[in-house]
What we know:
Chain A is an alpha/beta fold. Chain A contains 17 helices and 17 strands.
Amino acid sequence: MALTGIQIYKFLPKTNCKECGQPTCLAFAMKLAASQAELSACKYVSEESKKALEAASKPPIRLVAVGAGDKKIEVGNETVMFRHEKTFFHRPGLVIRVKDSAGPEKAAKTAEEVGQYKVDRVGMTFGIDGIAIQNDSGNAATFAQCVAAVSAKTTLPLVLMATNPDSISSALEKVAKAKPAIYAATKENIDKMIELAKKYACPMAVRSSDGLNELAELTDKAAKAGVEDLILDPGVRGFGDTLVTFTQMRRLALNKRFEPVGYPLISFPGEGVASPDEEAILAGQHIAKYGGIIVLDHFSPAFVYGLLTLRLNVYTDPQKPIQMKPGLYQILEPKPTSPLCVTTNFSLTYFSIAGELEAAGWPSWLLVCDTEGLSVLTAWSAGKFDADKIAKTVKGQNAAEKVSHRNVVIPGGVAVLRGELEEALPDWKIMVGPREAMAVGGFLKEHWKS
Amino acid sequence: MPGVEIPIEKWTGKIKEVKLGGGKRKEIVLGGENTLPFLSFEGSVPHPPTVAIEIQDKEPAGWSPILLSAWGDAVKDPATWAKKAAEYGAEAISLRLVSAHPEMGDTGADVAKKTVDKVLSAVDLPLIVIGPGVAEKDNAVLVAVSEAAKGQRIAIGNCEEKNYRTVAAVCISDGHAAIAKSPLDINLAKQLNILLTDIGVPADSVIMDLDTGALGYGLEYALSIRERVRLAALGGDAMVSMPVLSHAGAEAWRQKEAKASQGMPPGWGSVEERGIIWEELTALTVLNAGSNIVTMMHPKSVERIKATIHKLMGKK
Ligand code: SF4
């Protein structure tokens, strides 16, 4: 979290010696707060103040990565309790758990299947983010073999789940390069787990079986030993307890700056619930309420699609509505003779017009312009949905090659653009559609002759 | 290392209690909590959120086959439907007068009155009645509904900024609760509550419908408006402290994801599971953000969301 100039000023020598190039210490503090200067420019800051400044400028919840490369899961670094206060930044990772007791082939097959799961939404592709492998057998060699088999079949980040440090150690020997998360350090094994996390530079989960006090002691110990990429399991399960505890931890980290819980969470919605359905509902709660790494025991595409959609909703920046990727979208397998309609890339605008076209049974081409996620009228008044933009999108998306006609329907709300558009698109006939998406079926019925 | 001190928020406000039913009818109380949803470690949540089942007065058209098969022939008659809903665990019935819509049958006050009479005598649950959503027709049929249900304390909606006087007036005279519907905007919600209380609707007889959206379709707005309204209410703003109603079922089941059974990408999974989880996640999200009553549609989602609420209330 960024400090203000005044907060930083308190740690400076207040001698105004000007050696940093600023007229006063306060001026220097202001530059620091604005990230326009480096603390090292002042030679006179005490070691103590330096440490305090570093600690104070640390994010209240650490950003932790599981895995390496472009598929790594990054969680943490959240700054608010409620998304409307700013936004939630790092989408929780959805991870599927397999067990080594199932045998390496079966575990690897599940991992492979899960890794192939893909679903498109608002022009983006989502899938499962990682695989957790549990040392159900208790045997280190069995575990290592299973982990190796899984990692041969997937490039997704891994979570290695064992309480026996030997199991973790033999698995890390095979896959440490991929930076898997170690789950979990507990009161009983923490010293050995810390050694492993340090040796292989992997993130480490810490699990408490006795509340937040024990958890704080364990993370404090790990941090002091130099293992700071931590993920927390406060040991609670189920709906009520996770809601309460996760809320308390987020508050402690953000409002009290209580560092020992300033790390992302790992949760297991499948533990302590009655059915896979309930697991999915609880996973939904963890998406909305402070989850980080969410480990699922069941993989059902319908549930996962629902959860990924929820995650997209919850983690949308309130200042930046969900946007469709601009492009030429096909509604109900259109033919070259089907209508061509123009809209904006605000997802709700797109969905309502696409939904109406579908409901009315009109195969059509829907040309989505980049309006930075604004709806028709807002985009128009902000100058982001004008004749120029529409003309460029028509050309850029090669609409003329997809349709055999030269008619384009624009939203009724921007009827004023017709004249300019006729100039910008001289080959096209501009048709002004209805103002409301609901009326598009009726409009086409009356005016569209294919 | 010092012990961890759990931060407790001290709220000054409280959600108003609104009673529905009573007398020979079962009574439910909405609201009453003085803390954020389910955080009973720092306040009290005297009444768990209610799960109502939504039915309508006309055989549904264009509904998901999953929903239709769950209800069978009951959808042909609102009284039978209400009874079956009660058997499936509904804690209230939300009746939508679809047939009064000019394009859905254009039935009048007499039909609405009869339907409400039938439903009220079929079940002893509290009732919510929602008009067809067209101002003139809302006013015509809801006046008749109010009179038919006099003494039963039902909730009647919707009152909207552009059309609230008629419904508000009959709620006052017949002792019902008014549902104040506003479009995902805290200021408009507050404004409407002020208008309603100004013309004499008691503050304990207003329920807010803040608009819901569905999973994938604006649910983030529904979530944030509820959290903002809840925080304002607990912070002491009495004019947004009315209980919140969310039509989670109708919104979720309207979406393609809940309905489509053929030609969907494999990533969407089975249609049997998809619609239900769509409804459940929509309901769960608005409950965790602050809703005192959710109306739902599929018996399975009703069962699971009731179980979820039970657990969130700290019961095992
Ligand atoms: S160098 Fe340090 S002490 Fe000197 S003016 Fe700059 S901030 Fe102040």
